[in-house]
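Give me the fold.
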Amino acid sequence: MPPQDNHTQKTNVKKMTLLALYTTIALTIFTVESLIPPPIPLPGVKLGLSNIVTLWLLMHTKARDALLVLLARIVLSSFFAGQMISLMYSLAGGILCFLMMALLFRLLGNQYVVFISIFGALFHNLGQITAAIAITQLPSMLAYLPALAISGIVTGTFTGLCAFYLKRHLPPRTAWPL
């Protein structure tokens, strides 16, 4: 591999620093959210506020950068929370959610962030149910899907609105394009 020039090295350091910053923001949001009681007393239902960071990155950066931050946040949050079993559920849900949102951003652009967020939440829940069935070998877990779908629509709407208003009210220079 040829040596990189000084400008390329500075760009790479800046990019890594910004990705680490976004990961820290997502982890902080995740930690604060974990202190909030769940909106309804069903296992696995939460607002998913750290997904605002993923939405923001999909609006302002390359999908690859958003995926790196998402994966770092999932792995680190599972490690910090001390619940490594949740890693499988989070990865399954997070990756499926990300794939759907990245596809919809590519097809629809930034105009429909709330719609995209809702579909992301629904696919996150689908990924978690799929992981639960794979782990427990209980297809009856599908009975939980309607409740998760309703919560996904509500939480996806809330998260999408947060990202929408964040985009509307933050100046473009705060997007820190990578």
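DSSP finds six helices and no strands in the chain.
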